[in-house]
Amino acid sequence: MILALKTDPMRKLMLLFMLLTPFCGVYSQPSLVFETGLPFQRYNDVRIPNESPATRFSFTDDFELQGPVIPLRIMVGYTFAGKNHLFALYAPLG
């Protein structure tokens, strides 16, 4: 068991969670949220208003795509005393 804990970080996290859960108060609740997705661009034409010829361009045809962008957002929260909330958010921009 000790050797497995040194090599697998997920087991360390699960063990830590299992050890700390009994010490949470009656009105406390930890939470963990993962969000991700895969966006697609098919039809994205834009017209600039307030110009006399109303310039039109297309995001899909006029710009080179740098590859797929897979967004990721992780939020860790802790609710205690029934009405107090603490949250930490990890959402990289690139």
**Rg calc:** 23 Å
Oligomerization category of the chains in this entry: single chain
Q: H/E element string?
A: HHEEEHEE
**How many strands, what sense, and barrel or not for the largest sheet?**
3 strands, antiparallel
The share of residues in extended strands comes to 25-35%
* Helix fraction bin: 10-25%
* Head-to-tail CA distance between termini: 38 Å
How many beta-strand runs? 5
Which descriptor suits the 3D outline?
elongated
**Taking all residues together, what is the mean pLDDT?**
76
Give the spatial strand order of the biggest sheet: 1-4-5
In terms of per-residue confidence, which ranges show pLDDT below 50 for 5 or more consecutive residues?
none
Instruction: Return the structural class.
Output: alpha+beta
Number of helices: 3
